[in-house]
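I trust your eye. Have a critical look at both lines of this record:
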Amino acid sequence: MPNICTTNYVIEGKKDELDALYQKMKELRGQSLGQLVEALGKDPNEVMCRGGWTELEREGDILRMTFETAWTPCYEVTQLMKAVYPSLRIYYKAEEPGCEVYLKNDADGKYFPETEADGHAFELMTEEREQLQTRLIRGIKDGSIEVKVSKENDKG
């Protein structure tokens, strides 16, 4: 059983694109991210999309949602959202306390002002780091990357 990663998203973009995504997700309420991926035109077997969403709010010029996923944020799902709706700017804050994963991509603190400097353990993610993490997860999953743990490297 995976550890649950809770990711809070705030999405900005053109009104028509925000409305379209909101409507699509509202119609799928209670469904999995795989069904969202399918509704956005992709095969869920080709996109890492394990999980679902628990909150969805259209608020003024933004859309807010929370995903609960396995281990990490679903980078490929948000990349697909941006491919379908090019005006979207997606900000997030992700927490997976079991493995002490705390990530965000809101460098300016517009929606998620937490920083390591003020006692919050959130690492800043760039698009390049997201892509690297996606490649690593895919590689581990398909066996093209092997992870070895040895006692020598164990600091605990």
Summary: The helical segments are 15-27, 33-39, 75-84, 127-142. The chain has a mean pLDDT of 89. DSSP finds four helices and six strands in the chain. The beta strands are 4-12, 51-59, 62-70, 89-96, 101-104, 123-124.
